[in-house]
Write a structure and sequence with these properties.
By secondary structure, this protein is mostly helical. 74% of the residues lie in helices and 0% in strands. It has 12 helices and no strands. The two termini are 45 Å apart.
Amino acid sequence: MKLGEQSSIAAWRMLFIVEGFPSVIISVYAFYYIPNTPWTARYLTKRERRVAELRLCQRQNKGQHETSGKKFEWDEIWEALKDPKCYLTATMFCCCNVAFSSLPVFLPTIIEDMGYSALRSQALSAPPYLVAFIVVLVTAYYSDKNQNRGLFICFHALLAAGGYAMMTITGIFKASAVWRYWGIYPAASGFFSAVTLLIAWTINNQDSDAKKGTGVAILNIIGQLGPFIGTGLYPETDGPFYIRGMAACTIFMLVVAGLSLLLRTILRKKNMVMDAPAIAIEEEREEDGLVAGDRKLVNRPSPFRYIL
């Protein structure tokens, strides 16, 4: 903003240029770096490319109902609209968006109300985002590696709730601004990571492209109700501590943690139901002496399994 005041470009326009220009540079790099197919991924070994290709073929030929030549299936859309899983993830997404939309919008103001100047508050608002960016990348990597969404979402929701609770308590007791500032780090890292994993979880747990698209639509329609709540949590009259806003975000993130465990439990039971016929067949073979050694799942009716 100070730079804009010393140039012929308006300060608000300079802010958009400074914030948007890095994305333009990265987009050029991403255009050449992000592969179109596993075989064009330069960062994968030959074996890893082959494994990625086989996984894609398996999902397309066995785990998916749709192919490139199949017509649009309205029945699958209707199934997704009736699927409670879609609404559980959408509710979690809505709760995350309460925090996601409120704190980033008012973060510079919150820091300024802690006693810092406008320029310094802008500078202090950057490090929490940098830390959150790193945490999101690490979380996404290990979540994919372990094929686990629910526990990671629960952990980060609790992390965010802890950060908001810290800012709430320090505000109640009029503690030092330093404590409130440090509470921003777990809050930002937590809800940014939870939002990222929720989008992936919604897509993972639908077995066709039509259902995936419908699930994402439900996620966004319900999820975007969160900003209506979040943007009203920090009125000027509540400054400089914004206790009600911090407490509300704490509650919403605790709801996300609870719902993530509930959905994980539901999905585990669904996987057990789908695995039951195969286990029964294997046990019969073991009793007949046809199979020895470790029990393996065979003759599954569908290769699709929910990611927990």
